[in-house]
From TrEMBL:
GO terms for biological process: epoxygenase P450 pathway; xenobiotic metabolic process. Heme binds at residue 399. It comes from Capra hircus (Goat). The keyword Signal applies. The lineage of its organism: Eukaryota, Metazoa, Chordata, Craniata, Vertebrata. This is Cytochrome P450 family 2 subfamily B member 6.
Amino acid sequence: MELSVLLLFALLTGLLILLIRGRPKARGHLPPGPRPLPFLGNLLQMDRKGLLKSFLRKYGDVFTVYLGPRPVVIICGTEAIREALVDQAEVFSGRAKIAVVDPVVQGHGVIFANGERWKALRRFSLATMRDFGMGKRSVEERIQEEAQCLVEELQKSQGALQDPVFYFHSITANIICSIVFGKRFDYRDPQFLRLLELLFQSFVLISSLPSQLFELYSSFLKHFPGSHRQIYKTWQQAPPPLMGAPPTRLQDKSDPRSQFDHRNLIMSALSLFFAGTETTSTTSGPFFCAERVLKEIDRVIGSDRPPALDDRAKYSKIWTLLPIGVPHMVTKDTHFRGYILPRYSTSLEVYPILSSALHDSRYFEKPDDFNPAHFLDANGAVKKNDAFMEISTGHMRICLGEGIARTELFLFFTTILQNFSVASPVAPEDIDLTPQESGVGNVPPKYQIRFLPRQRG
């Protein structure tokens, strides 16, 4: 009995000390932020709709929040993000772990690697994307071909309700297959469908609420069943990517510093599939909603030829973007806006909130509205807007496939709307675009639309 009382007293004393001390210690001089609770951090203040606005008003564009027990530096707004990712690109190029996928990647592959491994894999990946199958036909030609295959597939639907997300996954995955395997697949090919299913399952799991909780308390939850183990099993079922790399680029056993082993190459290829398929297809989801878009396609391109990249300079930029990047770390103790951010060995994560730039009232007259005028001058020509960070920014950790993604979004989207009108069984004002899951990424809601052939002439 006395022992139980002593244990209870010790527990209450420890809790009281934590409450008095407040936030956990973090080396460096971090930006101010809301006061965290022990163990919970700022979780109880995480109102998804009003979090950034309320914190921005009080703490400015740079502040610290505690996700559970660990500190995270949040960077918001066009100027602050560019100051970090452009002006200090190399310093902010460290990649933080995502706990739920770390058992799979373990710091391998071009997305999650750091240091010399990352630099070597990035150089190799850039060269691979230029060389693999690209010599005979350009990226533009491959995407145009895939777009025409999609048109033929949609014509078969004869106006019946379709799941557009399936087609977005298929066309973007086929472009990656063209790079990695050197060929495209039929949309009903069993192996291709299995690959799409595994990619989508992983994306849903990584963005789920259990995965977010695991991110906060992974050191404890890793000992129990959960989404982290499901993700591991799912990725183990993925077909081994056939990179086709020359043997000279694989592991040189005489050079222990070489990064070209099968694990790094496989994880880089899987990352390419995952990022190149899910992000682009998810971004494509909200496109079929603006009548002005159809008018602009008719004005710029017409209906007698397929769209080409040269048309893009005459065309309003309309696509939506990823709200947040993969977490960064600083590679050395860094002075940033009067604060000191400790290098990545202390596990301090840095989150540049890209969506805050896209809603920056200093750069957009109506930041919460879809308004092509944000990107057009008085003569209707495209103008540059520094706040438009469509995928990311900075030259160090920017998406390797950014150029391909831009090309895909433009050519796929314009080809579809050049050939089809789209109709929904739900009135536009009743369409709910709330994501199924929202974590590392936004999983689009399930919906169906009709693709109705447009009348020529």
